Amino acid sequence: MRMSSSSAPSRRSLSAITAYLVSAFAAGCSDSAATGNEDQSSAASTTTGTATSTSGSTASGSATSAGAVTTSASNNMSSGSVMGSTATSSGAVGGTGTSTSSGGATSTTNTTATEGASSSSGGMTGAGGATGTGTSTGAGGSGGTGSECPVVPPLMGGQEHCDKELKGNAGNGYGFEIWSEQMGSGCMTIYGQEAAFGASWNNVEDFLARVGLDFNQTQTHTQIGNIVADFAHTMTEQGGGLTYVGIYGWTVDPLVEFYILDDWGETKPAGTASDGSPRTNEGTLTADGATYDVWSKFRENKPAITGDSEDFYQYFSIRETARQCGRISVSEHFRQWEELGIELGKFHEVKWLVESQNNSGSIEFTTATVAVE
Q1: Looking at 177, 257, 332, 349, which residue is catalytic?
Q2: Does 257 participate in catalysis according to the annotation?
Q3: pLDDT digits over 336-349, tens only?
Q4: Range of weakest confidence among 85-94, 202-211, 259-268, 311-320
Q5: What confidence tens digit (pLDDT) does each residue in 218-259 have?
Q6: How many CA atoms lie within 13 A of 116 on its CB side?
Q7: What domains does the chain contain, in order, with CATH numbers?
Q8: Smallest Cα–Cα separation from 53: which of 69, 35, 31?
């Protein structure tokens, strides 16, 4: 069927409308693309701003970052490393990573996201806070010179002796002796409670006070049995010099003076005698969980239990760290001395001792026992 001539204008109008709509659609797409490009540019700018911090500061202005990405002061992030997508960090927001020292101290530093892996689809992903080896507890200071001792009130009463030289009965099977040489003065107090005693001295040249077991000089330590001693004491010292606290005694055949020292004053006894002459190191031993240095000294024309001018050896076990209470396994020292080649004789005594030279001071034994098991 042929159309009439009046239909031609209608076709032209339809073409015009179609052209207009196509033009309008094209313009709309162009605007949308421009807007998209503008948004992309903004996002890229934001991402770049987030990822190009060069001074360890946090790029906190990014609204598109789930967790702000930072760098340390010594590392720079390249702005080209994040393109077209939001930079995200799984680390602490604001760039604060917790670095924990191994000593227990915790510090806070901006070290997050510097070790992050680069993701092609999600931008740069931070590795989170840099964590140290974890919190550890230190060993603590080396407080004091020995183990902590219980607080025991001082003993009261007792009998005081201030003689230059005196021996006697302390009760409970114990004997006592006080002895001093040359200048100064000293006193001791016997409490009658096991081997406990107190002593004080003033400007002495050499002062000894002791309480413990007496023997009849007919038996060796192996024949006597296993000797142990318990103690607790407090002490003061003024004026330097030397102060010894520990087990003391003598043997005969051979004549030997011996010391097992667990405490001392300001100066620790060691390789030099009080007169400045050297002692000889015989080795070390271990007893009651501690190490002792063993020393010897040959004495000539000196006072002894057998006379005022005798030649004899002195032997010392000196604990590496001082203590003011505990147990001394006395016979263990004797056994190990013999293993080191030291010869002991038949026993005259084994007593708790304080000896002071060229100083002043005081001591109180609140606990003191010497026993044969």
Answers
A1: 257
A2: yes
A3: 999 999 999 999 99
A4: 85-94
A5: 999 999 999 999 999 999 999 989 999 999 999 999 999 999
A6: 34
A7: 18-126 (no CATH), 159-372 (2.60.120.180)
A8: 69
Q: Single out the catalytic residue among 177, 237, 332, 355.
A: 355
Tell me the two tokens of residue 35: 């807007």
Spatial separation of the C-alpha atoms in residues 32 and 116, rounded to whole Å? 35
Are 134 and 102 spatial neighbours (Cβ–Cβ below 8 Å)?
A: yes
**Separation CA 210–CA 196 (nearest Å):** 10
What distance in Å separates the CA atoms of residue 186 and residue 164, rounded to the nearest whole number?
8
Residues 6+ apart with CB under 8 A from 26: none
Q: Which residues pair with 298 in a beta bridge?
A: 313
Let me know: does 363 contact 269? Beta carbons within 8 Å.
no
Comparing C-alpha atoms, which of 53, 80, 83 is closest to residue 68? 53
- The 10s digit of each residue's pLDDT in 286-329 is 999 999 999 999 999 999 999 999 999 999 999 999 999 999 99
The arithmetic mean of pLDDT across residues 48-60, rounded, is 34
Q: Where are the beta strands (DSSP E) in the chain?
A: 88-89, 97-100, 106-109, 117-119, 123-126, 159-161, 165-171, 174-181, 185-190, 197-204, 206-214, 227-238, 242-252, 256-264, 280-287, 290-304, 307-319, 325-328, 346-357, 359-372
Rounding to the nearest 10 degrees, give the CA dihedral for residues 33, 38, 43, 48. Answer: 130
